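The following block was generated as part of the benchmark described in Methods. Ligand: guanosine-5'-diphosphate.
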Amino acid sequence: MNAPRTRAGFAAIVGAPNAGKSTLVNALVGSKVSIVSPKVQTTRMRVIGIAMADLDDGTRAQVVLVDTPGIFRTAKRRLERAMVAAAWQGAEDADVVALMVDAERGIGPETEAIVERLKDQRMPRYLVLNKIDLVPRERLLALTADLNARLPFERTFMVSALKQDGIRDVLATLAAALPEGPFLYPEDQAADLPMRLLAAEVTREQVFLQLHQELPYEAAVETEKWEERKDGSVRIEQTIHVQRDGQRAIFLGKGGTRIKQIGARARHELGRMLDRPVHLFLHVKVSERWADDPAHYRAIGLDYEPKSS
Ligand code: GDP
Ligand code: MG
């Protein structure tokens, strides 16, 4: 028998603050997701959850839900504008976009700005009116008409993320719009993947802070093991991938002092964020081929275009 065909891709969940994005993602994914740090925002897309769906056409889909931090902001200063542009780049890399609107609050300036921007996008765009438990039907219809007049959405959903009403339909539709292809993440990692990525980001930040002058930009951090222990602590193993032996030596430092220092700070930071003891083990590995493989970068949430210094 043939293995079932699969679909996989990125679904960006965009919307004004408090629209209910996190509530939706948590409901779609199940337990532990949406651990996000306001501080660590070095990637354009932030994986906030992974949802699996079995579709009517017989395919099984992996929907990687991403957040695009800062997307709603109306930027005045140059730096702010650059940050918003970077956030939008994240949405543009997604395969599908779902705009969430708080139906009780209606269309504010943030939603307006997002709609304007979505007009230029080519991927399928869906509208999700949320908090229907608070709003009379006439209002929902008026909002649907108003928003679809600004931008004809592929479909409009009316849901209550909080009551988990209507959300399976959203997931099935997003999933069906993804391209056919292999899963981006091993299924058994999906549950704690956002935390794995976050942990990798924390270490990467320490690498950056401690090595930035000598920093091999090609270095990438991958969380290879994430083990919850009975005593409440977590054991994390990470590999720092570098391209050359010389870079490995820089990372290790004399007698391994460099890597110890990076590990100590990252462990401290992770312990603070996760609010429990962390045992962190770092390995530095020369992985030439790894660095050339864009799929790998994409899978761990990094941009694979090398940054120029
Ligand atoms: P985000 O900022 O877009 O991630 O929004 P959150 O998911 O954090 O939700 C913002 C607030 O709206 C929280 O207090 C949620 O409990 C609430 N909320 C989310 N979805 C619903 C819903 O369907 N109905 C109601 N009544 N409240 C909701
Ligand atoms: Mg949120």
